[in-house]
Each structure stands twice: as C-alpha cells, then as structure tokens.
Amino acid sequence: MRIRREVEQEKNELNMTSMIDIVFLLLVFFVMTFKIVEMEGDFTVRMPLAGNGQSSTDDLNLPYKLRLHADGKGALTSIELNSMNMGTDFDKLRAEIVALVGTGEPIEGDSGPEIEIDTDYNLRYAHVIQAITAVSGYRDQGTGQVVKLIEKIKFAKPRRG
Q1: What is the pLDDT of residues 19-43, one digit of tens each?
Q2: C or N: which end of the chain has fewer Cβ atoms within 10 Å?
Q3: Does residue 71 register a pLDDT over 80?
Q4: In the chain, how many domains are there?
Q5: Measured in Å, how far apart are the chain's first and last C-alpha atoms?
Q6: pLDDT in tens, 110-152
Q7: Which burial class, exposed, middle or buried, applies to 156 when counting CB atoms under 10 A from its CB (0-12, 13-18, 19+)?
Q8: Please, what is the angle between helix 125-136 and helix 90-101, to 10°?
Q9: DSSP codes joined into one string, 89-146
Q10: What does pTM read for this prediction?
C-alpha cells in the first residue's frame, strides 16, 4: 500500500515591513504639513451649568447681552445687543461691538469684556456661528492681522416659544 502525501501547501507570507514604512511616512508627512488656522477656535466659550437658571458674573463686569430672535422655521428675524435692535445685519453688530469694546490691546490684569448670547430654541446653528464670528474678532483688510474683540462668550439656555 502506497501512502500519498498531500501536496505541501505553499506558505504565502506577507512582508509587512514596507507597509509599515509607508504608514509612518504618511504619518510624518501629515504631521509636518498640518497648519492650525488662526481664526478657527479663537474664542473661549463657557456653557451654562445644567439646572442652574442663574448666570454668575465676575465682579462688576456685567456681560453684554446679545439676543437672537428666530421665526418658526429657524430663520433669524432680529438681533438685539443690550436691548438695541440691529435688524439682521451682522456687520452692524460687529461695528457696534467695535464701538463698545474698541480695537486696542486689553489692559494687563483686565479679563476683558464678556458677552452672553441668548437665542430662540429653534434658531439655526449657522446664525449662532455668524454671531460668534461677529463679536469675537475680524481680520483687518489692510494689514491682514486678526483684531480680537470679545474672547469671553457664554450662552444662556435657549428659549422655547
């Protein structure tokens, strides 16, 4: 009786060395070319505490109050800064903030101005971002430098109704 041996299976080995080299090269490439955009995330946001209906203010520096009204579909209907109606123009809002705050450097030890944004519950998120952009700063067309206005931004609970 003759015993047949099964054909020896060929062993296919995958050489992972070159694949790992490529992964590290890509990782190094993306880390070295990553640039943080200066205008993104250039503001401090303080959210209200859960269940706390009252907002605290630091010392006697009362925050500016920005109220954004919306219609039933979430479109912006009006902007109010300290009960002064701005229509729906964010450029007018920025001009008013510049008039109130100024564009100079903050005094050392001064924590700077603060703004509280109060919105209707169904307001579209894009309008809130436009408001944050308008009050936090802008890029000067002449010099290309970023002019910071208000860095302390906090939010009131959205209003229903």
Answers
A1: 999 999 999 999 999 887 666 555 6
A2: N
A3: yes
A4: 1
A5: 93
A6: 567 888 888 888 889 899 999 888 888 888 888 878 888 888 8
A7: middle
A8: 30
A9: -HHHHHHHHHHHH-SSPPPTT----EEEEEEBTT--HHHHHHHHHHHHEEE-TTT--E
A10: 0.57
Question: Structural domain of residue 75, as residue ranges?
Answer: 44-53+61-155
Cα gap 38→24, rounded to integer Å? 28
With beta carbons less than 8 A apart as the criterion, state whether 27 and 39 touch.
Answer: no
- Residue 35 located in a structural domain: no
Q: Is position 109 within any domain?
A: yes
Q: What does the alpha-carbon distance between residue 131 and residue 151 come to, in Å, rounded to a whole number? A: 13
How far apart (Å, rounded) are the C-alpha atoms in residues 38 and 21?
32
Question: Would residue 151 count as lying in a domain?
Answer: yes
- Residues in contact with 17: Cβ distance below 8 Å, sequence separation at least 6, in sequence order: none
How much is the mean pLDDT over the chain?
79
DSSP lists the bridge partners of residue 68 as: 79, 119
Spatial distance between the Cα atoms of 134 and 24, rounded to a whole number of angstroms: 41
Q: Assess if residue 80 is contained within a domain.
A: yes
